[in-house]
Amino acid sequence: MSVSDSPASSLLSRLSLFWRTVPRAALGNLVAKLLMVSLGLAITVTVARQGPAVQGAFALFVAVESGLLTLFSGLGLWLARQISQRQGGEAHAAELPMLRGVLRAAVGLGAVASLVLLGVSWWATRLPYSQLWLLALAAPFLLLVPTTTGQWLGQGRMWPINMAQVAAPASVLVGLAGVWWLTQGQARHAPTVVLVLTAWVSGKSLVAVVTAVLGLRDAAHRDARLAAPIAGPSWWSSWPFVLTIGVTNVISLLNYRVSLFLVERFHGLAAAGTYSVAVTVAELLWLLSSSVTVSAYARIGHPDMRVASAMTVQAVRINVLSTLLAAPILLAGAWWALPRVMGPAYEASLWPLAALLPGVAAYAAASSLSAFYTNHLGKPHLSGAIAGLSLLTSLVAGLLLVPSLGPTGAGVASSTGYFLAIAGAYAVFLRQAQLPLKALWTPSLTRGPEAG
Q1: What is the largest CA-CA distance in the chain?
Q2: How many CB atoms lie under 10 A from the CB of residue 375?
Q3: 3-class SS at 140?
Q4: Angle formed by the axes of helices 350-362 and 239-282, nearest 10°
Q5: Which residue, of 15, 51, 420, 429, has the fewest CB within 10 Å?
Q6: For residues 174 and 186, which has the higher predicted lDDT (pLDDT)?
Q7: Which H helix or E strand runs over 89?
Q8: Residue 448 has pLDDT above 60, yes or no
Q9: How is 28-60 classified by DSSP, letter by letter?
Q10: pLDDT tens digits for 399-445?
């Protein structure tokens, strides 16, 4: 047997082929996400070292903020779909009027959400819900980022999205450092968690306003280069699509976070704090998968079924393989690092992390499949049904396991939901794309024409 036919050579060839299939834009987005996550982890470590109870309050606050952002995320995805579906056509819709429309809607909906958050904060007596007035002040601005980046997502342009993703946690850290520098050597009149939350909403609001301004300027410049732009549709004419995406994404978020709220309900803030660290570390596996999906989003939305399905299958292969390879490495690193970096109390995060990782690795394909349902098919309710199945499974299993097994039971419950849901998601995709099961591991079955 020649050297070129050896198993080692064959493995290297397969790895080389895998590397070539990774979209170059995904690598840039991955670098940005790594930087963003590093900044986020710095915030998490800072808060976690104040104690598991403080970390639990912070994690629940951020979960509420994420719920607000996802509920109205349909505005940005509607804009992304309108733009990506028109790429390469002879007539281009003017982007500026569409962007202005969705930004006005984002500010208005944020103001309504602000009133609700103020009411909850007024009546609440426990952290973090008593501090939701901070989120209420920022709510009209926070929706600007996911809405504005919809235009760049539809264009397939990653660098402005990357800048917005990195700027938010960087500004939070700068604000947090400034607060601590100003209060150095003085008695603090507010607990650490309140300082962190103030820096969090202030930094993200500043970045949101700047992102919206840059997005409007970019849209105006692109429209000025068009010879004969046509009038684009209004988001209001597609409000069922926008609403369905929002509801779907809230279901998806609850799917990711329901176990956290169950742990807090049955075992308190400290247990929620240690479990939230396990969740944060486990979801690092989704760094590459989300980068691949974002970079391929415009192509997944191509109107030709063969192009869209081929890109989706390619993204699924990359996502699943990369997370399966990374999961044991991540667990080994966390087993050594968490107690040393965050403190001995976070040894309690390790077994929940081990229980979470298998399901999180399998669920890495969900983002690409969801993009196919939403951006190509225009059927976001399919993503909602898949996430709802996972949520229901996780909730039922969690109610059975969390009271007795605590955070580890929550990890087992979440993994069970992820496994069941991703199996359903594969089946729905293959039926919609009219592909056989073996298409997932047989590239020749999904080679389609190049997108125009």
Answers
A1: 76
A2: 25
A3: helix
A4: 140
A5: 15
A6: 174
A7: none
A8: no
A9: HHHHHHHHHHHHHHHHHHHHHTT-HHHHHHHHH
A10: 999 999 999 999 999 999 999 888 888 888 888 777 777 666 666 55
> How far is CA 61 from each of CA 67, 69, 200, 410, rounded to the nearest angstrom?
10, 13, 10, 19
Every domain of the chain and the residues it spans: 11-446
| Amino acid, res. 346 | Y
Tokens of residue 377, six digits: 């098919």
Q: How far apart are CA 426 and CA 438, in angstroms?
A: 11
Alpha carbons 237 and 235: distance in angstroms, whole number: 5
- Please state, in angstroms and rounded to a whole number, the distance separating the CA atoms of residues 307 and 313: 10
CA 388/CA 146 separation, integer angstroms = 23
Cβ-in-10-Å burial (0-12, 13-18, 19+) of 89 comes to exposed
At residue 93, φ and ψ (nearest 5 deg) are -75, 140
Instruction: Determine the Cα–Cα distance for residues 299 and 227; give it in Å rounded to an integer.
Output: 25
CA 359 to chain centre: 16
Tell me the torsion sign for CA atoms 398, 399, 405, 406: positive
On the question of a cis peptide bond just before residue 169, with omega within 30 degrees of 0, the verdict is no
Backbone angles phi, psi at 100, to 5 degrees: -60, -40
In eight-state DSSP terms, residue 207 is: H
Q: Which amino acid is at 448?
A: G
How many CB atoms sit inside 10 A of residue 379's CB? Answer: 16
Dihedral class, residue 302 (left if φ above 0, else alpha if ψ from -120 to 50, else beta): beta
Q: Three-state SS for 93? A: strand
Q: What is the pTM of this model?
A: 0.66
Query: Measured between alpha carbons, how far is 167 from 157 in angstroms, rounded to an integer?
Result: 17
State CA 388 to chain mean position distance.
17
| Residue 162, pLDDT score | 76
C-alpha 123 chain-centroid distance: 30
Burial of 151 (0-12, 13-18, 19+ CB in 10 A): buried
294-320: pLDDT as tens digits: 666 667 766 777 777 777 887 788 888
Mean pLDDT, range 172-198, rounded to an integer: 66
How far separated are the first and last CA of the chain, in Å rounded?
44
- 369-404 pLDDT per residue, tens: 887 887 677 777 777 788 888 889 999 999 999 999
Q: Which two tokens stand for residue 72?
A: 């109205």
Q: Return d(Cα 101, Cα 292) in angstroms, integer.
A: 29
